[in-house]
Amino acid sequence: MVTTLDKVDVVTIGVGWLGGIIAAECAKEGLKVVGLERGRERGTADFASVHDELRYAIRYELMQDLSKETVTFRNNRNQRALPMRQMGSFLLGEHLGGAGTHWNGHTWRFLPYDFEIKTLTDQKYGANKLSPDYTIQDWGITYDELEPYMTKFEQTAGISGEDKNPFWGKRSADYPTPPMKKTPILKKFETASTKLGYSPFMLPSANLSEAYENPDGAKINACQYCGFCERFGCEYGAKSSAEITVIPTARNTGNFDIKFNANAVEIMKQGDKVTGVRYFDTVTFEEFIQPAEVVVLTSYVMNNAKLLMVSKIGEQYDPATGRGTLGKNYAYQILPGASGFFEEKMNTFMGAGALGMTVDDFNGDNFDHADLDFIHGASLSITQTGNRPILTNPIPPDTPSWGAEFKKASIENFTRTLSVGGQGASMPHKENYMALDSTYKDVYGVPLLQITYNFTDQDKALHAYLTEKAAGIMQEMGAKTVVGGSPISDYDIVPYQTTHNTGGTIMGADPATSVVNNFLQHWDAENLFVVSAGNFPHNGGYNPTGTVGALAYRCAEGIINYSKNGGALV
């Protein structure tokens, strides 16, 4: 038996950064909002004993339960896709706050080049710089148009940073809090990169350098540099996340309610509008329908795409014909870099998720690509995130991977190894996409999402070029041994790489080439909005969260205008 609940103004599917932003903004305007969260409630008090690497970093306490739902993966259409049985390349979050609870806190704005990448690349290098197999396109919005929303997200989260990067877009306001501490390790990077003619600056961080109260009155504490950020919740309330910022703001209005253990399985649709969401209680397996005037998909990239697919909203992308947009332009990330082994000991076991320095000299189109066989690039950073003993066993080349010699080398180099790593941009390719799996289903009987993805020639060329640049910085830093990252070949869904998946529900100015418009409103259903990094037509040289947060504020504005004016935002 299905229970139909009372209708509300807005329902969000997922209550993390995106669902929290939508809820807070809409609830402040008097709209009644319900958030469907398939996990449980949690907050700072739950992380009092979070310094447990085995429980959180190895056994994934905060992550999605893959025994109930996972994804299937293959490198190409000729392979059979198989389920991911344990967490591998990316770490999907679950419970209140989502992946924003266990993130590191890197908070970037994509470059102006990113938003008009097709136009600007063609203008500078010609339309044949990349083959037609690469499906790059403009976003349907410019950096300048999105900039006010970027500022709003940074002010909500209290981001700590400095405006010293000569390559990024113009800012309308400075960071709300100063940059984090510049440690001896970061100074070593700063000195070396400056000598090489680059322009280092402190990485923008959601691990706050000082206590901060945001415009909504939410208070965020100062970072203690304990080194337990990624894969962990913050016991100090010092890593900005949805459950200490936008979710309390939404709840304080009295217009927001969260339904926990609520797993959405279908978006209900009649004609050119959606009517609500069908979901299961994950504890009792009771079935409910939550009617709403506006439905907003605010869950992770993959789940947003899957829900549209199972609900048959939009045309599924077909790589054989190039038709359709849903599932198109799935992109991941490339990780060029180099490690260095030093003589001196360093304090590598303390730090914070976004404590670091960066150079952008090889990101975006900040350098000439005329004689290169790729476009875009990577931010190159050194981060001091806090090395932990189970997952950190740095050993020089030719050291055995087990036994007494391995143990000795691992202990010796635990505090003597540094890395310079790149967040490499990933260009979309016609053969990289998402679809529904025809064989495997989740615990609710819904088909699993299938990912078809492999590294391209563009990826391999970018990786090789940027790895050489990273090695040059490490050499200048004085490492006795420098080891560049191995060349990439086929993508493997293990081991962990990043949780920076993009595409599948891409935005744009034309319904023929995008799923949503630049207010993140679905072209085929005027009261359906879809927001996540899935809106990115390609992946950039940064972590996506800052840009996604801006899109959420843009989306919230669209929902409020739609709700109050009753007009379609197209």
From TrEMBL:
Family, similarity comment: Belongs to the GMC oxidoreductase family.
Keyword Oxidoreductase annotated: yes
Ranges where the Glucose-methanol-choline oxidoreductase N-terminal domain occurs: 219-329
Protein name: GMC family oxidoreductase
The UniProt record lists the keyword Flavoprotein: yes
Keywords: FAD, Flavoprotein, Oxidoreductase
Species whose genome carries this gene: Planococcus shenhongbingii
Domain Glucose-methanol-choline oxidoreductase C-terminal residues, every copy: 428-552
Superkingdom classification of source: Bacteria
Organism lineage string: Bacteria, Bacillati, Bacillota, Bacilli, Bacillales
InterPro entries: FAD/NAD-bd_sf (IPR036188), GMC_OxRdtase_N (IPR000172), GMC_OxRtase_C (IPR007867)
